[in-house]
């Protein structure tokens, strides 16, 4: 019964609010919902839309085909014309009604009791007007789905940024520095909201250069320090990332990707920054790079990075993207949080190659020894990381699909019913032996990435010598949809 | 007795005015230690350039950080532990070229820290290029046609940004000592510009003969209009005018650390984030 609802309108018309209300009701009544949000760099006007996919079984992505299309403005139907099929139910806004009116309509179409909507409307402003609107919409339709409701007590609805927030708070973060940049800003807002209650501090500084350098300052006093940005901002941080390398200073960085180069497509999604996460910063030093695929993994891996960065005194990076950070997932169960101590103390640090006591040196023997010591750490880090969950394998089929980060949801949904299994890489650096073993025993590998150059496939080749010919790449700013991905995988299966 | 020396032999040129700054700072910190302060209550940060070597010669916790990033690093240290007494050191290249973006904002933040700029009007460690405070006409290998731009007047800039402690001294032990002592008493961002010739790359234009003391001249340091007038007397370009030194302006305003409940709590309990168990 997988159903896709696309809700579109102008920025300011509130398609997002409408989508959230219906999602909340569906999750509460026992359904699985995956809700994504597409918007433009426009504050009022333009075209924004949400795709709400729901099912009575697990679902972690949207499909390309649309079952219900809600057009808050005329433009929505034009933009999404190609997705409309004979069976698609199209709701148009001839009388210029508000989003809440359509929430009423949709609720009735799905077959829910009105009381569920009333509860949600209470959370909004203008209760009376909204209630009247919603009722009017509700009464204008007939139920078409007759969805049954069951009491769900354990499923919850969460996005990737909220997952990182949970991991940061439970992982013991003290201070978070950032400069606003989509799609990383949502984490800053999430953390800022209850900072006093949580006894953490979030600060917005003049630019990303100040952000990372301030994090270095607070980190050397022993505070668990974190920064967040997207690709362009991360570029500005990389000089200081290199300082964290030579200074052996623990900073956790959240890198939420969007399409580049440069300003790229500011409000869309991409996985184009794996290379900079792995290789940015001049000189040679150790780091850890992780890529969660859902909000629970976001929490788990973020907490693990606080542990690893403190233990090994290294910079650590969480790769996310707009799709993961801003999409809502229906989840169950708790994140396995890694707790850690604060192991850094104020002493004498240096950006120059330095003596143990902190003073700069050009002594070639010491330089060589320091370089080797810092790189030797990579072995210890790898040993430690091997104890953690570095990858996951889903399914038992013959073809091996490989992916990382936010594509997890679409791949997981796409392989259902196929003779394929899915290897999800969680730790990209260090590169685990378990991943190598999985790759070596596969005879048909397909890599799926939201970028144009298959950066994971290239990493795999570099680490294992395995060349992956089958690549499914998408780089138009949109995430993978499970139905289109399934077709692409089928074409490449032996 | 505490010793602030490190094992490193200074590599500044013989007679370099940076020795004067080092001794002045050392004397002040030494006095603080003698009056009961602990060495680990202090943190120092230097950037990149000749000035930055001061980190190697001063055995106090902190970091010799990246070029231009002294201020955000000091800021971060204060955020990490607002109880620390933080002193930042920069050269004119570090502060006014590479680090200008931070200087302007640091003036807004008003964190309680002291900032000493070793201004010799030249990039010395890279063998003598012009900086934002170099005078027009200055020639070097990379500027064979002579520097063409008007120099920046850092004092005027700081005053215009409402910085609550703005001073300039000549690089001699006593002046550095006196002004840093005052700055440490001041609660907030204290800006101290130390003018010095570079013996190798930027000749002395007779600083010693040209300077006069604002305090001896009965300058009213609470008067911003007067301060701005005094700042105009030397524009970093001409080699003849008198150069006022001392405190141009002093006025306390609310510091950054007091604006955030979380930091205030740390200050009140004399704690850092490291002490917070989660």
Domain tally of chain B: 1
Strand content of chain B: 15-25%
CATH class membership of the largest domain in chain A: Alpha Beta
Distance between the termini of chain B: 38 Å
Record field, number of beta strands of chain B: 8
CATH topology of the largest domain in chain A: Rossmann fold
Structural class of chain A: alpha/beta
Radius of gyration of chain A: 24 Å
Name the CATH superfamily assignment of chain B. Thiamin diphosphate (ThDP)-binding fold, Pyr/PP domains
- Mean pLDDT across the residues of chain A is 97
Shape of chain B: globular
Helix tally of chain A equals 18
The SSE order of chain B reads HEHEHEHHEHEHEHEHEH
| Distance between the first and last residues' Cα of chain A | 29 Å
Reported CATH architecture of chain B:
3-Layer(aba) Sandwich
Main pleated-sheet profile of chain A: 7 strands, mixed
Identify low-pLDDT runs of chain B: none
What share of the residues of chain B lie within helices? 25-40%
Counting DSSP H or I runs of 4 or more residues, the number of helices of chain B is 10
Q: Which CATH C-level class of chain B is it? A: Alpha Beta
Helix content of chain A: 25-40%
């Amino acid at each position: 019964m997988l159903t896709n609802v696309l809700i579109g309108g102008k920025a300011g018309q509130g398609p997002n609010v409408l989508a959230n209300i219906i999602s909340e009701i569906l999750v509460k009544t026992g359904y699985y919902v995956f809700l994504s949000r597409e918007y433009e760099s426009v504050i009022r006007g333009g075209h924004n839309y949400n795709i709400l996919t729901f099912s009575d079984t697990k679902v972690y992505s949207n499909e390309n085909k649309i079952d219900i299309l809600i057009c808050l403005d005329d433009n929505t139907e034009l933009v999404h014309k190609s997705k409309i099929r004979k069976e698609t139910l199209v709701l148009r806004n001839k009388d210029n009604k508000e989003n809440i009116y359509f929430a009423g309509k949709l609720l009735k179409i799905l077959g829910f009791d009105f009381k569920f909507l009333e509860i949600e409307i209470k959370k909004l402003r203008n209760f009376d007007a909204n209630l009247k609107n919603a009722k009017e919409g509700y009464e204008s339709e007939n139920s078409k789905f007759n969805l049954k409701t069951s009491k769900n007590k354990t499923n919850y609805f969460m996005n990737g940024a909220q997952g990182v927030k949970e991991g940061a708070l439970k992982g013991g973060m003290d201070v978070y520095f950032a400069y606003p940049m989509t799609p990383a800003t949502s984490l800053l807002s999430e953390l800022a909201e209850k900072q006093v209650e949580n006894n953490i501090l979030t600060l917005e500084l003049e630019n990303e250069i100040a952000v990372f350098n301030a994090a270095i300052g607070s980190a050397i006093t022993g505070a668990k320090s974190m920064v967040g940005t997207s690709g362009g901002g991360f570029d500005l941080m990389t000089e200081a990332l290199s300082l964290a390398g030579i200074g052996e200073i623990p900073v956790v960085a959240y890198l939420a990707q969007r399409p580049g180069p440069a300003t790229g497509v500011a409000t869309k999604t991409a996985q184009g920054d794996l290379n900079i996460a792995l290789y940015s910063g001049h000189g040679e030093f150790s780091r850890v790079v992780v890529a969660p695929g859902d909000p629970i993994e976001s929490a788990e891996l973020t907490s693990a990075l606080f542990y690893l960065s403190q233990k090994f005194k290294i910079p650590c990076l969480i790769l996310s993207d707009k799709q993961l950070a801003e999409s809502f997932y229906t989840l169950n169960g708790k994140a396995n949080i890694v707790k850690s101590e604060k192991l850094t103390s104020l002493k004498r640090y240096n950006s120059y190659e330095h003596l143990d006591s902190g003073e700069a040196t050009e002594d070639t023997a010491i330089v060589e020894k320091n370089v080797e010591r810092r790189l030797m750490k990579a072995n210890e880090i790898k040993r430690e990381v091997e104890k953690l969950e570095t990858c996951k394998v889903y399914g038992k089929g013959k073809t091996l699909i490989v992916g990382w980060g936010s594509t997890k949801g679409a791949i997981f949904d796409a392989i259902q019913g196929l003779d394929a299994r899915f290897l999800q890489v969680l730790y990209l650096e260090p590169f685990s032996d378990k991943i190598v073993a999985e790759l070596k025993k596969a005879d048909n590998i397909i890599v799926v990435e939201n970028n144009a150059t298959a950066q994971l496939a290239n990493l795999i080749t570099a680490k294992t010598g395995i060349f992956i010919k089958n690549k499914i790449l998408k780089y138009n700013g949109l995430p993978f949809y499970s139905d289109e991905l399934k077709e692409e995988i089928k074409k490449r299966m032996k | 007795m505490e010793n602030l020396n490190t094992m490193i032999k200074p590599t500044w040129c013989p007679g370099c005015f940076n020795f004067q700054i080092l001794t002045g700072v050392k004397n002040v910190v030494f006095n603080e230690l003698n009056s009961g302060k602990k060495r680990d209550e202090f943190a120092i940060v230097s950037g990149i350039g000749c000035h930055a070597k001061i980190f190697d010669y001063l055995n106090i916790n902190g970091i010799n950080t990246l070029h231009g990033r002294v201020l955000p690093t000091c800021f971060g240290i204060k955020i990490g532990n607002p109880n620390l007494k933080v002193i930042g050191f920069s050269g004119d290249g570090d502060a006014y070229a590479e680090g200008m973006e931070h200087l302007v904002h640091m003036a807004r933040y008003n964190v309680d820290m002291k900032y000493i700029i070793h201004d010799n009007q030249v990039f010395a460690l890279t063998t003598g290029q012009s900086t934002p405070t170099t005078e027009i006409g200055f020639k070097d290998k990379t500027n064979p046609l002579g520097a063409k731009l008007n120099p920046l007047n850092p004092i005027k800039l700081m005053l215009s940004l409402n910085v609550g402690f703005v001073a300039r001294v000549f690089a001699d032990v006593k002046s550095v000592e006196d002004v840093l002592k005052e700055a440490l008493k001041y609660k907030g961002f204290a800006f101290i510009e130390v003018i010095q010739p570079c013996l190798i790359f930027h000749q002395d234009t007779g600083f010693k003969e040209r300077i006069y003391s604002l305090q001896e001249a009965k300058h009213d340091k609470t008067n911003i209009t007067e301060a701005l007038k005094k700042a105009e007397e030397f524009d970093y370009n001409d080699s003849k005018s008198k150069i006022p030194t001392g405190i141009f302006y002093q006025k306390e305003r609310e510091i950054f650390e007091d604006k955030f409940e979380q930091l205030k709590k740390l200050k009140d309990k004399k704690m850092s984030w490291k002490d917070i168990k989660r």
